[in-house]
Amino acid sequence: MEHITPIKEIDSIKDDFTIKVRIIHLWTQKSKFNAKETYSIEMILMDEEGRKIHASCVKKWFPKFKRYLKEDSSIYVKKPNVAPNTLNFKFADPERKLNFYHDTTVKECENFSGSAHGFDFVDFNTIVSNNIMESKSFDIIGHIFEYGRMDTSEEDKSKHKMLLHLQDIEDTKLKVTLWGHNAYYMTEFLANNNSLAPVVVIVQFARVKFINGRPFSSTYFDVSRLFINNDIDEITSYKNKLVSENGQQLSSSGIKMIASKQNTEHDDFLKNHMFSNIDDLFEPLEEKTVIIVGTVKGIRQNIRWYYLACSNCYKSAKEKESSTDKVDGSHEVAEIVTYECSNPNCKNIKISVIPRFKIPLRVQDNTGTLTLTLFDQEAKKLFKYTAKELYDKNKKLGISLDLYPMELKVVVDKKLAIKIDITSYNVDNKSNIYGIARLTENANIIDELEKKNLNSQHDNSDSFIIGSSDIASQETKVVKDSFSHTGENLTPCARDNSTATSPTKLFSTPTELKRNLATCIDLDEMENLSTSKTPRLSPPDEQPIPLLVPKKEK
């Protein structure tokens, strides 16, 4: 029997060594260039001492190794290649990882004596008291006392999510978000299992993020593994402790559905708020939430597309310079760039910063164009890359960070339904600076909104159309619109047989009508429009613009 090297003794200096491990988790990584193509098989391996290491096998070596690579199987691996672990989030050995390549050999192992899963549990109190690192994974065990509905608002299924409220033996509570396939696994389990036993959950390789000092635990892409009431020692032991602590068997009927605070996309856009046109937002008169439909025409170049955010609370951070003595003994001063969070409630004195989206979009409908700011949360629906990834890429290539990355160009010409909050600031300061509260590309919702807007225009129109049928003779016809909110069956006045050479343009809002009347028609002569055959026109070399003129009260 050849010598077995423990994971803790793996050294990049040596390449001829053998490890005896169990594959405690396995998943596939998709290609960055083709989402339908598998790029690699990723694994977390554990030796008999319980130490873990990340390993990868790229597609070209699948024929050689794939038949041995199965979750929960044990294998011998000889001559794997050692590489540095460059991932920011560590879920195994923080320094090294292994790659399978042409010199590597794998064979089955039938006498692995280590743990079956290698759980490394962290109690809930450690998490809620902020005594855990964000950069390292951990395992948790608890039972469900509340759960939320699946959120499927994103098109990408990996971004569908479900919220669990877990409780441990000590009655400490923790919120955990399940993402993607783990959320679907939980939803299916809860729908099909009505047993009397409590629903005990293990999340292996979980992660935590602290926002405003509060912990938010979640699964991490395909790395996390979920166990729900499995017949394994750890869950059986937890159930026995739970029963002894409570003195009786708990029932899953006690699990409650969390009341949803988030409106469905359909209700938010079609039921809960008024539809508006862009020109109605130029001079806000009252606080309210409105829905618009518009097309993105471009991104403003004179405003940055990102901001540097405090990694703790995501509020903007300000750069400040400080100095310190150099450590080389030269007595010279070194300039150091540090950051200060703009949020007075942020508890972190020393902070790091992360780029987040703040994109000034120029959005247009048939009444006007407006700049709307797209922030990180909604930007995730439109882009494949994070702001940090684009920031780092441009910085590495030496591209000015003031120019928006070409990857953002995919948003141009997209038609979106957009939710906008008109705040007291907008009303008090007559400000038309707005952020995008929510957006959707859902074609059915956009079609429904446009139909409602069209019907509203028809119901409210009560106007005259002024047009030119003969530029040479400088004659203008006045035609009364056939639509009226009073329900009268109005008939357009007779036209001559000449063919109209100018288009008919309708101005459906008071603001647009007033603006165009002021620039194109002498309001003092409107009294003569219905009687004079030669009303004032635009200059002879310009084609007159047809306008809507309100009916004059008798």
UniProtKB/TrEMBL annotation:
InterPro entries: NA-bd_OB-fold (IPR012340), Rep_factor-A_C (IPR013955), RFA1B/D_OB_1st (IPR003871). Transmembrane segments: none annotated. Residues 292-426 form the Replication factor A C-terminal domain. It holds the Pfam family DUF223. Gene3D superfamilies: Nucleic acid-binding proteins. Residues 526-554 are annotated as: Disordered. Residues 5-109 form the Replication protein A 70 kDa DNA-binding subunit B/D first OB fold domain. CDD domains: RPA1_DBD_A_like (cd04480), RPA1_DBD_B_like (cd04481). This is Replication factor A C-terminal domain-containing protein. It comes from Lactuca saligna.
